[in-house]
Amino acid sequence: METVLRPLIVIGGSVLLTLAVGWLVDRALKRTDARHHETPLWGLLRRCRVPLQSVLITALLRGSFQEIRLRAVEHHATGIGQLLTLVLIGSTAWLALRIATAVVDSSYARYAATTRDPARLRRVRTQVTLIQRVVTAIVGTVAVAAMLLTFPAMRTAGTSLLASAGLLGIVAGVAAQSTLGNLFAGLQIAFGDMVRIGDTVVVDGEWGTVEEITLTFLAVRTWDERRITMPVSYFTGKPFENWSRGGAQMSGTVFFELDHSTPVPLMREKLREILREIPSWDGRNWSLAVTDTSPSTIQVRAVVTAKDADDIWTVRCAVREQLIAWLRDEHPYALPRISTAQAEVSKNDWGPDLYKHDPTPRTGRG
Q1: Mean of per-residue pLDDT scores for the chain
Q2: Edge-to-edge strands, sheet with 200-203
Q3: What are the chain's domains?
């Protein structure tokens, strides 16, 4: 009878105590979250319930499994203890990551609620993302190292590993020079405010929006939904265009090659009417002027503005399409024409030598 009751008491008691503590902690966090609406921290901490229960039940079983006193447990006590220790370390790392993520997300949410500057908000978002990745890497490395050190063979080899750490560090540094360069470049981007998540950039002739920044690579989403993945060291070693730097507002141009007879004042008034009907135009500025001329055409430039890169593209396309349609329907003579008729030459222009200027081939008697 005792062999049955002991396992039930140890295992069942650990499970019941874990569930009770998890329920009490969750209720306390829920009440605290209801009282403090200004911060989402307490609500985010409720996500830690499962890893907390995992740590608690593993710790209870690790300290009391030998009280079961079953022959199978006693024969494999070392292995069971080792397994529970590994699970406890992993659960603790999981709980630490959940708490760190909750604190960082809460801080970012409070900052976003009080900041009206989109550029500064994107900068903080980029920094928060990279901080989370750094914390994850550090906690994961420490957890794996702690797991390895629980094995006696690894503890024995620890002294020799430390003795050769200097040489290994030099070798690893040379071998991973590119990786380390990207790592430091990622930190430089995060805290140097060079490029941020959500920025509109032009890299290698491709226009897109920064979608993800990690410690080693950066992903740009292009207008046609492609993803360009580039090492972060590219942005610290080569020039690139950042259209969101200093603000997302942008100016765009639309060029027209037209005939000299184009009614420019009427075209200017038509541009004003068109812009009033385009929702993407932000109303800041617009203009239309003749910027160049050639023997056959004039170059007309329309300047428009919008709140960001996506809207400026929409405005430019709409202006180009509607102005061309207006010229085609109302002023077709303004569109450029190519003369294909053969020029007529007067006999008076031939000069004294008639046949010298005659383009018609001559045959017959000489």
Answers
A1: 77
A2: 227-231, 217-222, 206-213, 200-203, 241-242
A3: 2-114 (no CATH), 250-334 (3.30.70.100)
